[in-house]
From TrEMBL:
Keyword Oxidoreductase: yes
Keywords: FAD, Flavoprotein, Oxidoreductase
Organism field: Dyella dinghuensis
TM region(s), chain numbering: none
Molecular function GO terms recorded: flavin adenine dinucleotide binding; N,N-dimethylaniline monooxygenase activity; NADP binding
Protein name as catalogued: NAD(P)/FAD-dependent oxidoreductase
Keyword Cell wall biogenesis/degradation: no
InterPro entries with a match to the protein in the record: FAD-bind_Monooxygenase_sf, FAD/NAD-bd_sf, Flavin_mOase-like
Length: 499
């Protein structure tokens, strides 16, 4: 435990980077296994990761609450079928307290550099507050942590506020203002309906139309919450039911022809709120549903139908001192610019400061196309477990399920190394190649690679390096029933040479 250590003792068996869903899952499971020799390095001043940072109006989860939570920490008190951001953040804070993880967390400690010391068989982690050392590292930085704001001509001259939805200022006042929103992704369709009633004018710059389906959210009654509290098995049944329903969606992603049925439902959903045929044409995508992230909302289309909203079907080309200019050359006078342009997922920031066995960074190894073995380990990066790594993103269900699976796989690999009496575990290069080839074969014919769109799922080489191409129970089976021969279990090589 940290409080039992000397202030200068910064060597741990396990270092966890990030206190979001992934990092906290690793910390809790370590503690449940009786392991207390670990530290969590968190760059922010609170736990929660993306659920701490994203505080924009209307921020909520797209997966039902009972599934978007830890299997080992069920919450009977969810107030809504789809939880809003404050409830999810409170849940993570509560888990941190109940499992006594807070004493292991070092807040305001951003990792600046990590490199593997083969001589000592450990990772050396550089921060502004000094170095930490760990035999094993759980990298829980996530893929949706660093906002992406495009470089647009003239932004530095704009006189009003400019911000990303993930950095929403607590003191911003949009009432009566003319607002420009750039992007129509998962964040924008949540905050646009919230700000539309209070702004004077809203210009929504949409480069590509998105498919939007009904959300179907509802409040969970007090009687239902009480039933879940009194009968935990009832809640487990509800969770399993949601899981099964969502796994059925994966069939559609794998067989694009099935998506035509869902597309018809999405079009009916649009037509129910949008009566203007010109606006309908602007909002109708020209690719198969599922190629990009499917968006869920009950109030997005009604908001766009309001007279103070103008959908501009283009990207933002230029910013002036008091306005914005689209590709059509028309200038719109605005007071505020909000970017809902997503995150840096194609060039993951952490890949540039993690250096492996031959002192080469992940970014240099990946060359714009992230690859790994089960999304968790990368060859030549020993004892490093990526959480939310390559090809683990989901288009149909809860990412928490994948994170728990990755943590459990890492714990089993560590346990096997300890059983063998060695200190190092590493993904085999050939096993990694075979795995990537298998993933690529599974992706063939799926909606993610054949549906005619450009999405953030695709890397710089045109490969889908983000999405898991099958059912989550298939991933869990492959990850937890790993073949030991696909990994190298050994002592640090320089220790072998000196023996």
């Amino acid at each position: 435990m940290l409080d039992a250590r000397s202030p200068n003792d910064r060597s741990f068996k396990v270092v966890i980077v990030g206190a979001g869903f992934g990092g906290l899952a690793a910390a809790i499971r370590l503690k449940q296994k009786g392991e207390h020799d670990f530290v969590v390095l968190e760059r922010g001043d609170d736990v929660g990761g993306v659920w701490r940072d994203n505080r924009y109006p209307g921020c909520a989860c797209d997966v039902q609450s009972h599934l978007y939570s830890y299997s080992f920490a069920p919450n009977s008190s969810w107030n809504y079928q789809f939880s809003p951001q404050p409830e999810i953040l409170d849940y993570l804070r509560r888990c941190t307290q109940e499992f006594r993880i807070l004493e292991h967390i070092q807040f305001n400690t951003a990792v600046q550099r990590m490199y593997w010391s083969e001589e000592h068989g450990e990772w050396i982690i550089g921060t502004a507050h000094g170095e930490y050392r760990g035999r094993y590292v759980f990298a829980g930085m996530g893929a949706l942590s660093d906002p992406k704001i495009p470089a647009i001509e003239g932004m530095s001259h704009f006189k009003g506020p400019i911000f990303h939805s993930a950095q929403w200022p607590s003191d911003v006042n949009l009432e009566g203002k003319a607002v420009c929103v750039v992007g129509t992704g998962a964040s924008a369709i949540q905050f646009v309906p919230r700000i539309q009633p209070i702004v004077s004018t809203l210009y929504l710059f949409q480069r590509t139309a998105a498919w939007v389906v009904k959300r179907g959210d509802f409040a969970i009654t007090r009687n239902t919450r009480e039933r879940f509290r009194r009968f935990p098995w009832w809640q487990r049944c509800a969770r399993f039911s949601i899981y099964v329903q969502r796994e059925l969606l994966a069939f559609g992603f794998r067989h694009p022809i099935v998506m035509r049925v869902v597309q018809m439902q999405a079009i009916r959903h649009m037509h129910a709120s949008i009566k203007d045929t010109v606006l309908r044409r602007k909002l109708t995508p020209h690719y198969t549903l599922g190629c990009k992230r499917v968006l869920v909302s009950d109030d997005y289309y009604p908001a766009l139908a309001q007279p103070n909203v103008h959908v501009v079907p283009s990207g933002l080309e230029r910013v002036t001192e008091d306005g914005v200019v689209g590709s059509d050359g028309v200038e719109h006078k605005v007071d505020v610019i909000i970017f809902g342009t997503g995150f840096q997922v194609q060039d993951l920031p952490y890949s540039h400061y993690i250096y492996g066995r031959d002192n080469t960074s992940l970014a240099d190894v990946w060359q714009g196309s992230p690859r790994s073995l089960t999304g968790t380990m990368v060859s030549d990066f020993p004892n490093l477990f990526l959480l939310h790594g390559p090809n683990t993103v989901l288009g149909h269900t809860s990412m928490v399920y994948m994170l728990e699976t990755q943590v459990e796989q890492a714990l089993r690999l560590i346990r096997r190394a300890e059983t063998l009496g060695v200190a190092v575990v590493e993904a085999g290069a050939e096993a990694q190649k075979r795995y990537i080839a298998w993933v690529d074969r599974k992706l063939r014919g799926t909606v993610w690679v054949t549906a005619g769109c450009k999405s953030w799922y695709m890397d710089k080489t045109g490969r889908n390096a983000s999405i898991w191409p099958s059912y989550t129970f298939v991933y869990r089976s492959r990850a937890l029933n790993f073949r030991p021969e696909d990994y190298e279990f050994r002592q640090p090589s320089k220790q072998d040479e000196s023996a």
